[in-house]
Design goal:
Radius of gyration: 15 Å
Structural class: alpha/beta
Length: 167
């Protein structure tokens, strides 16, 4: 039987990731980090509009998204994707990767429907942890009031699982 680490490594190899960031240098850094952890099927979009089209045409397994970019910006982008009545792939996992770590922005991103949140500059270890969290611990999508988002996680259980997995 294959170990959990081997199964995760195999999943990373087959993962199709879309990076959406208007800064070419940040796209290069994110691509390099992904390549370093074994993700080789990486695509890029330079703004929200081309990112939305790329999701429609590529059908990525995961999106890594910047907050500040040309229309739509990160939160607007997530709200557009998380519209099951009008967007074809509303369940695609989204990690917000941004330089804005204020609590209000984190809360806005979560309410918009991101699966996870990372602060720039990001390390390979932090990115790997979020990828594993999103692909292994994938939460089902639920409608909560006007929001369509990943099912809220039990924070106590999440912390315990995270510590066990990465100690």
């Amino acid at each position: 039987m294959e170990s959990a680490a081997a199964q995760i490594a195999q999943r990373l190899v087959t993962l199709k990731v879309l990076i959406i960031d208007d800064e070419p240098a940040m796209r290069r850094v994110t691509r390099s980090l992904l390549l370093a952890i074994g993700v080789s099927n990486v695509h890029e979009a330079v703004d929200g509009k081309t990112g939305l089209e790329a999701i429609r045409t590529l059908g990525p397994d995961l999106v890594i998204l910047d907050w500040e970019m040309p229309s739509p910006n990160g939160p607007q982008f997530v709200r557009t994707v998380r519209s099951p009545d009008s967007f074809p792939l509303p369940n695609v996992p989204i990690i917000m990767l941004t330089g804005h770590g204020e609590r209000s922005r984190v809360m806005e991103a979560v309410k918009a429907g991101v699966n996870d949140f990372l602060l720039k500059p990001v390390s390979t270890k932090a990115l790997l942890a979020r990828l594993v969290s999103v692909i292994v611990g994938r939460r089902r999508m639920v409608k909560i009031g006007e929001y369509y988002c990943p099912e809220p996680r039990d924070l106590a259980a999440y912390k315990a699982d995270f510590e066990i997995a990465w100690v």
